[in-house]
Design brief:
The protein is an alpha+beta fold. It contains 5 helices and 8 strands, in the order αββααβαβββββα. It has 2 domains: about 80 residues, RimP-like superfamily, N-terminal (GMP Synthetase, Chain A, domain 3), CATH 3.30.300; about 70 residues, SH3 type barrels (Roll), CATH 2.30.30.100. The termini are far apart. The relative contact order is 0.12.
């Protein structure tokens, strides 16, 4: 059954990706699970600027229309769940790191675990302010990284060191 679920996801992925892209967003994840006679289709979408609740609803309508056109692939009724990635989503791609600019991130490498504020990002590494020092962290050295929740505004001097003098980008 797991293989069939993977096959459904693989069969639907191109059309769902195209529909999400046409709506101006990126498909982060597509998961199809069988639940009795129904399928659960979970679609995780995101955008460079983030995604608002009303935008999620619009993407949901778009994806639903595409799935209805491809109901022969699903082979029966389905439940569609469209959502955005949560804060606990690991940062695995350069675009995830760009979206986390000026945020506090906990990073685990093979050698250490540290928390730092995210600065500029390239395709290969990220600049981080760790313990008051700027350092370049290569993506291929990162085993796991997640955004830390902050309950107060970041110190202005940290933002200034990372080229983010205003609060823009810091949440």
């Amino acid at each position: 059954m797991a293989n069939q679920q993977g096959d459904l996801g693989a069969a639907l992925e191109p059309v769902v990706r195209d529909a999400v892209g046409a709506a101006g967003f990126e498909l982060e994840q597509l998961e199809v699970q069988r639940a009795g006679r129904r399928s659960l289709v979970k679609v995780v979408v995101d955008a460079e600027k983030g995604i608002e609740l009303d935008e999620v609803a619009g993407v949901s309508r778009t994806v639903s229309g595409v799935l209805d056109e491809h109901d022969h692939v699903l082979g029966g009724p389905y439940t569609l769940e469209v959502t955005s990635p949560g804060l606990d989503r690991p940062l695995t791609k350069p675009r995830h790191w760009r979206r986390a600019r000026l945020r506090l991130v906990k990073v685990r490498t093979a050698d250490e675990t540290f928390t730092g504020r995210v600065g500029d990002t390239s395709e290969n590494d990220v600049q981080m302010l760790v313990g008051g020092e700027l350092r370049q962290v290569p993506f291929d050295a990162v085993d796991h990284a997640v955004v830390e929740v902050e309950f107060k505004q970041p110190p202005p001097e940290e933002l200034a060191r990372l080229g983010g003098g205003s609060q823009e980008g810091a949440r």
